[in-house]
Amino acid sequence: MFRRAATLLLGLALCGPAFAAGSLRILTPVSGRPALGPTAVALQVQTPEGAAVSRVVVELDGKQVALLTSPPWTAIVDLGTGETERVLGAVSAFSDGTFARAQVRIAAVRIQETAEVSLVSFYATVRDESGALVNDLKVSDFQLTENGRAQKIERFSTERRPLRAALVLDTSESMNTDDRIGKARAAAIRFLETLAPEDEVALLTFSDAVHLVHPMTSDLRAIRAAIEGMGAKGGTALYDAIWKASELLSGEDGRKVLVLLSDGKDEAQSGIEPGSLHTMNEALQRALRDEVMIFAIGIGRWGTEQAPEADPYTRMPLRDILNTLGSATGGEVLFLSRPRQLAEAFERVAEALRNQYAVAYTSDDQRKDGSWRETRLTALRKGLTVTARRGYYAPKQSPRASG
C-alpha cells in the first residue's frame, strides 16, 4: 500500500502547478558523492503558507524505503554495496493538496579489497530493565540472525579481551564553560586507572582540527601527562575526529573502542559553517568498516532533551547524532547536563567494557560481494537489552582472484 502511495505521490508531483507550492531538499547524502551501507538521509521541507506536511516518502531506485509523518525528517537507509550508482528520491505531500519532490544521485564507490575472514566477530553488553549489567549469560541464552536468517554462534566468551582504545576529547572553546575542560581532564585520568596492564590507549583531541596527542601505547603515565596538558580553544571538528580515530584503530587487533567526549555539534568557531571536512555519514561508515565501537559522552547542549541545535548537513538533533553513532557500532551513549557528572559517566563506560561478551560465527552467506550484512543479537531471557554492532561488510572478491 505504501509503495502505491509513493507512486501516486510521485506522479502527482510531476504534474506541474501542484508541485511548486512547497519545497523539498535532500541535505544528505550529497548528490554526486559515493555512499554505501546504512546512511542517514536528511530532508529539508518547506511547507506552503498555511499548510502542513502530511507525509514524506523516501525512495531508492524507485522503491519506497521509508515513510515519514513527523519531524525530524530523517531516516536511516541501506544504500547497499556502493558498486553501482543509486538514485535516492523523496516526495512530500502537504495538507493543501500540493506536493514537492527532490532527487540525488549516489555515485558508485570503489571498495578496497578486504582480506577474507572466516569468522564474523563482535562484542556485546547486556543490561536488565534497571540498567544494570548482566554478565552471567551462556551461549544458549542468545539468538543471532544475519539478514533475518538464524546463525549458529561458534565462539562465545566472557573472558576480558585486551582493549585498544582511542580517547577522543573535545578541546573546543566551549569546553571552557563551567570548567568542563578541567573536569574532563580529571574524569579521563580516572578512566585510565580502570584499564588493565595489557590494554593500550591513544589520545586525540579536536577543536578546529584533530590532533594525535599521543599514539597507541601501554604507558598510561605518558597518556596521563598528555591529558593534564590539554587546553581549550577553537571550533569543533567532531566528524573528522571520529574519522581519524577510526583510521588509527583500523590497524589494531583486539577490541577497538573509541571513547568520545564532546559538548556540541560539528561547527567552526565562527558558528556559520561545519567544523569538519568529513560528514556524519562518512564518519559512521569509517567506524563501521574498521569495526570500531563508539562510546560517546555528550555534555551541555547534548544533555538537553529538547535541544534545538541540529547538524547543518543532516538536520538531525544533537542527541540523535550521538545515538546513531553509538547504537550502529555497538557502543553506548550517555548525555550529561552538568560537567560534574563526567567522572560517573567515564566509570559507566569502563564498567561496560569490563563486562562484554565476545561472539563469533561463520556466516551462511559465503559470497564475497562487499555487501552490508545486518546482524541482530538478542537475549532469550525477558527484560534484557543487548547492545552490539548492527552488522558488518562482507569480504570483497579481488578482481585477480575472480578472474
Briefly characterize the structure.
The chain has about 400 residues and is of the alpha+beta class. Helices cover about 20% and strands about 35% of the residues.
Give a verbal description of the structure:
This protein is α+β, with helices and mostly antiparallel strands. The protein is built from eight helices and 21 strands. It is globular, with a radius of gyration of 22 Å.
* C-alpha end-to-end distance: 44 Å
Counting helices, strands and paired strands, the structural category is: alpha+beta
> What is the element string, with H for helices and E for strands?
HEEEEEEEEEEEEHEEHHEHEHEHEEEEH
For the biggest β-sheet, the strand order reads 14-13-12-15-16-17
State Rg: 22 Å
Query: What average pLDDT do the residues reach?
Result: 85
**Strand portion, in percent?**
25-35%
By DSSP, the count of extended strands is 21
Count of runs of 4 or more consecutive helical residues: 8
Sheet having the most strands: 6 strands, mixed
Amount of helix? 10-25%
Enumerate the spans where pLDDT stays under 50 for 5 or more consecutive residues. Answer: 1-20, 111-117
Shape: globular
